[in-house]
ABC-2 type transport system permease protein (Psychrobacillus insolitus), 369 residues
Amino acid sequence: MTGIWIARLQSLKRKPLLLIFMTLMTVVMAYVLGSSSNGTTNIYVALDESGKSQEVWKELNEVEGYTFHKMTKNELLLKVNEDMDTIGVLINEDTYSVFAGTESDTVRSLSLAIESKFNELAFKDQVIQASGESTWVEIEKSLEENEAFQVKVDAMDASQIFRYDNALQGLFGFMLFFVFYTISINVQFILEDKQSGIWNRLKLASVSRFQLYFGHLSFSYVIGFVQILLVISMFRYILGVNMYGGFWKVVVISAFYVLLVMAISIFVISLVKTVSQSSVIISLLAVAFAMIGGAYWPLEIVESEVMLVLKWISPVFYAMEALKRVTIYEETLSSVWTYLSMMVGLAVIMLAVGITLLEKRTERYHSSE
């Protein structure tokens, strides 16, 4: 087994670009798609020096669904002219202007929110002018104590509430997608050794089948797992992505996923004759599993019943669900044991079937000779 590891390390040293490329692609894609504003819309705002505009600005920052960025009037006009997709707002003492390339629901909702804030402040000013500030304080206190509606709140299972974190969706999705390639390509060395005759020569040199398989598979497992560790460590400790205290739970779940992908790769190479055939099938499976497993988008927004049924055949689905549960939903590892046990069960079955088929093919090849 040591000899296999040395040979694989030497091969990796000669051709490290693939591993580096897969790791970099994971980081780049996850960073680009995950660095957006987590579902909020960026709004650029310029204010005059009046107290009213400052009050409106303070109130606007409490409106959900938008991320407001303060700048000067000249900076705002320049940005709006350079980028037609930019939405800008110029707030004066008694009026406001919205700059946008197109009329949209976002622009209309924003205008309504600003108009509402202006009306609230105007009502406050009228009350203070008519009856004094103490009257307004009493009105505010009365509104807080005597609500217009009595709302009954019932507890709801947290697992039934859809929570979304754009940064983690991008990180987990592309991490699982690209590591599928890394592991599968490394497992293909078993097929290459069998085709080139190296496998048989090692067996003649008193290397057992267990040592041969364990050497190759353990190396593939470690390479895939190290890639995942590098990616999640970079995002957690360098880029500062919030994992909701679940970093080590993410590591544990990733270990199960790597095992399942390795088993699927063994099963795939047991069904084909050449490495090129294996590469084609693995590429198709990687993309398909990512699409139906929720790597590119959360499955909560998918309406197709067919896709929701097909998700159960995707290893990405089990990993994505478990990863999101222990981070975004802040659940424990025991709460995602169903997904972990499914990954282990499928891995054991596919490893057993894949190795059996590979050995039968080898026996048939020798008998034909």
In short: The chain has two domains: 2-36+164-368, 41-160.
